Amino acid sequence: MKKALILVLAFFTLTTTFAQSSAFKVQVIGKGKPILLIPGYSCSGEVWKETVDHLKDKYECHILTLAGFAGVPAIDAPILQTVKNDIIGYVKQNKLKSPVLIGHSLGAFISLWASSEAPDLFGKVICVDGVPFISAMNDPAVTAEAMKNSPYMNAEQVVKNFEDLPSEGFIGRTAKAMKYQVEDSVRAKQIATWQFKSDRRTLGLTLIEMSTTDLREQIARIKQPVLVLGSIYNTKENSLKVLAAQYANLQNKTIHVADSKHFIMYDTPQWFYAEIDTFLK
């Protein structure tokens, strides 16, 4: 009986309760310096499973799944702005000391947004194939204002387009499209399944919000080192050119390009782990 009581007490001693947010679901795994891992568009935090397995012996991994994605209940707009604000609040409430931010795609965008708005709160930042203004990747001269006035950014129409997508065959069609973003067909189907479980309104509104928010000037406020890991945009040379333009105002940065599609942590995991290990030392 005494032994059982000791085990119960030990369990509660080792279990930490963290303040949560309606803007995201959090799973905490591992011990050590805190890291927040933010997934990309429509993805579950499970996208980081293998990354967390690699990190958990040295780091306390806070794995987020954002509201409206992969079955997590949706919230009202502005969605990404609320997520950004709540990430800052989550770090403050839980007294996390200079947590590292690792974000993929949309998650990288949010990482830049949070870190630039609260530069003294966060530690190093790792952006996995994400940029401060996605709309300027093909045309660096485009502005957020121009995008907001674009007929393609009509919120009602974009949301309706997503809501009108037939559920029958959704996963198969999306998985086929995902093959342009990830090599493995099993991974492509999993990403498609997460998107199928996502709230259609959230899919539309977050796409618009990210496309009309320009952080290229704001990232100059980030004080900590930033590692930018890009995929191949036609050629490696073009990737470096695009990323250099996107991150021109960020002083303390390192840009490396993987021989990979968009989901770098899936396509080239050993290269990815080596990059983050070196950067976090």
Automatic annotation (TrEMBL):
* Example GO molecular function: hydrolase activity
Positions of the AB hydrolase-1 domain: 33-267
Position of the signal peptide: 1-19
User: Transmembrane residues, as ranges?
Assistant: none
Recite the UniProt keywords alphabetically: Hydrolase, Signal
Q: Does the keyword Cell inner membrane apply?
A: no
Coiled-coil residue windows: none
Q: Name one Pfam family in it.
A: Abhydrolase_1
Write down the SUPFAM superfamilies for this protein, in alphabetical order: alpha/beta-Hydrolases
> What protein name applies here?
Alpha/beta fold hydrolase
